[in-house]
## 1
Amino acid sequence: AEMDAAHTKVMKRHTATLEACEATDQKQWREAAWKFNEAAHPKAPDTRTSLEICFVMDCTGSMRRHIDTCQKSVMKIAEGLHEDVKLRMSFVAYRDYKGSTGSDAATTKTR
């Protein structure tokens, strides 16, 4: 398997070199150079720890006085996580059907 990976890497660079030699314009040459660079310097896999958090909150009228405090708490949690953590956060607000204002859509943020 290791030999196959090395062979594939060499063949990608070789193919990109041939494409660069056969390029008829600047755009084709740049694309071939990009392919060669990717083959020569592959990106390292993301080895960070992954964490997914979904906050679900009651945003009905009776909870109005608690919403600001909850929002600040969510932000503190997010800011308190180490930068080495691959973080994906989402927030789902549920409300009363009647009298609901704004969107009830879930939002997601990835770091």
## 2
Amino acid sequence: LGPRACPGSWVKQGATVIDLGMGTVADGSRRRGHRRAGDVCMAEVDGPASFIVPSPNGVDRLVLPMLVKNAANCARHRLGLELLQMPPGTVMPVRQSAGPRTA
């Protein structure tokens, strides 16, 4: 995909959207003439999505450790082992969508 390639029509009502893409789009107001943008078109996805983790500034250094932890916990759960915990104070910047909510 490329910047803003995921339209709102791809997102089910009430979904949580985690934008992992990273690209650049032209922006004449910036010193370098461009800025970073994710693969999700936030203006369109903001309606159907309940929660959004944007890119950039949302998924940067925290997503990979969380994905690895969750994959490890899936395996540990299946084996009947104690689940791993994230260190206290570790948070991911998630914002609630401005769109309608589902019950």
